[in-house]
Amino acid sequence: MSAGTPRIGPTGDTLAGPVELDLTSVDGARRPRADAVRNRAKLLDAAARLMADCGAANLTMDAVAAEAEVGKGTVFRRFGDRNGLLLALLDHEEQRLQQAFLSGPPPLGPGAPAIERLRAFGPAVMRHELDNVELYLAAEPPAERRCVVPARGLRRSHLVILLRMTEAATDVELAAETLLASLDTPLVHHLVEQRGFSLDRLDSGWQDLVTRLAKPLP
């Protein structure tokens, strides 16, 4: 089973936990030592503080090392390069979102009807990504990889499951892709910042799209 494909429980809920953004296989890798986990968390905390102060575009490995009071080599060994650091930060934020829609309170999480969870999903994703927009834009993968990132696969599978639970009279896989496309981070950022769309307007558009795509057979 791939990292981006969740297991499905008897009630149709996704059972897989959050997936990482990194596409590198970790099969056979040793479990990280406790001190390595703590050091990684310390570096990510330092990077998050710096990013809040100066923005993702100005985040450097040297600055993270100074903030965390470690040698620059430690940062490079842990993350490889600046892009690896950004991906690690993005993974942390993405897992927070995944926890919310996989196991958080309803209506976004389990316990609400599928149609209500669909209605809650879009606004939650848009707000999450706008709150972290510099990070998402800075770590945006190249075009040829954008649609195969495991975290996107988990979102798509989650939407497919919810659409099936609504007994939508449509091609649910294509409908899930259509819904995901409307949540594209650069698009939402463009609509809000360059076009002046309000979040209320985007929320209304999402609700209309869900209503159309999740319409069951009469």
From TrEMBL:
Keywords: DNA-binding. It comes from the Bacteria. GO terms for molecular function: DNA-binding transcription factor activity; transcription cis-regulatory region binding. Residues 60-79 bind DNA. Residues 37-97 form the HTH tetR-type domain. Coiled coil: none annotated. Pfam families: TetR_N (PF00440). SUPFAM superfamilies: Homeodomain-like. This is TetR/AcrR family transcriptional regulator. The lineage of its organism: Bacteria, Bacillati, Actinomycetota, Actinomycetes, Pseudonocardiales.
